[in-house]
Amino acid sequence: MQSIWEKGFDMPGRDALRGDIEADVLVVGAGIAGVNCAYRMQRAGLKVVVLEAERVGTGATSRTTGKITAQHGLIYDLLTRSFDARTAEIYARANQNAVEEYAEIISREKIDCDFARADNFVFAREGGELLEAEFEAMRAAGLDAKLVEKTELPFPVAGAVGLSGQAHFHPLKYLRALAEKLEIYEHSRVRTIEDGVARTDAGSVRARDIVVATHFPFINAPGYYFLRMHQERSAVMTLEGASEIRGMYIDEADGGLSFRPQRGALLVGSGSWRTGKNPGNQFSELRRKAKECYPDAREICAWTSQDCMPQDHIPYIGKYGGSTEHLFVATGFGKWGMSSSMVAAMLLTDRIMGVSNEAADVFSPQRSPVHGFDGLADDVKETVKGFAKYIMPPKDMLEDIRPGEAGTVEYEGQKLGAYRDERGGIHLVSLSCPHLGCILGWNPDDLSWDCPCHGSRFDIDGTLLDGPAQRNLPDGEDET
Ligand SMILES: Cc1cc2nc3c(=O)[nH]c(=O)nc-3n(C[C@H](O)[C@H](O)[C@H](O)COP(=O)(O)OP(=O)(O)OC[C@H]3O[C@@H](n4cnc5c(N)ncnc54)[C@H](O)[C@@H]3O)c2cc1C
Predict the structure, then answer these.
(1) Exposed site from 117, 177, 219, 262, fewest CB < 10 Å?
(2) Whose CA is nearest to atom 31 of ligand 1?
(3) Tens digit of pLDDT for each residue in 16-31?
(4) Looking at this predicted complex, what is its ipTM?
């Protein structure tokens, strides 16, 4: 299930790290966050090295919808109510500056990445009260918000709150252009970071400053990000022959529809479910909704993806742990990683260069927990449930599993996941997540085993698809 960006796209390959090298800054991870950070730090005059576990741009960034906007759903009213107006204002300015920074980089480096300015809108299908509150909060935060009653969408709306001058692009074309300017080693998974030295299986990088931009941070302590973030997935498809729109849209309702144009085609997204808890039928649901909107359009491709959801809706950008003065993190983008990753690049470059940045405290991973968010409790609950489930006896038996379906079985005292392929072969994997031992759940849309605690994912044979886990699952013997 390739995304529109991956289809037929060629990203030049790079060598793996061999031996021991030094740099001013090491960036771990070559998605949008790692590449933006590395590019800005290198431009600031630092010697930067990037280590990537797989290939450049093969993580979450290859499956985004690529909207670059400072309007993140109904975030400004939420921030104003749960923090204060100043937090909302700083968040707005940081993200709006990030949008402009993309425009500047793309123009300066002459990057051909389908970058186009567009208005962004959050719409409501019923009731408009939330939009008015968001409109007021956006204006108070310094954004030139507008309220409209009609949109270009093929259904009536109660209204929409919009922001002009936002943008969309082809994320992989952008990454390819910036990656060309950077010293990046692929197939170089960082296993440990200790005393300023990051080690892979075949070498090491010693650096004064290290930025962990691995989507979900892979070091559990310090930081404890697994206790304050989880991952959520959504489904996206590209349509040809749908009526053209110019703006970008997202429903204010959680899991509602999202739209953006891409060179004559249309990206439509929907759904939002916790990784490891897929109720199923996400693609058929998206197809049904898309058909309702655009009965004559043709599907080009469809895919799912996931992102890290921070407890209080603000990304974690700054020191990895309270006392790690030279180890930094950029994560928790809450499905708004295009602008947030640029915020990270700007903020962390300033931090490393000793320049003060007004947004540092707002995005600091060490900020005080805010009351009124039940996210932390939920994340801890899921983690604990995951551990507890490990000792529960299995309910399903192998013979009950039909082709194309999966179940759990007990095998030599271990809880295993079993998938029966269309030829009748059984694929067995251990269901204990190598990250923290939570029990994986079956994802029938993507045919993968997903962790409900922290969002790691594995294919039917246990190959790692998404972190924070850093290893494959041990498999049982495939029985065909
Ligand atoms: C359906 C969907 C639609 C979205 N649409 C939008 C949108 O329109 N606009 C928007 O702003 N955001 C959007 N997002 C969010 C956005 O896609 C993500 O926030 C963003 O891509 C995350 O980028 P990243 O660089 O943090 O992660 P990634 O792109 O996953 O990069 C992390 C990299 O780190 C590497 N890595 C991991 N562990 C190691 C290790 N130990 N050593 C070395 N390398 C390692 C991985 O291989 C990977 O390449 C969307 C999210 C979803 C789920």
Answers:
(1) 117
(2) 31
(3) 999 999 999 999 999 9
(4) 0.99
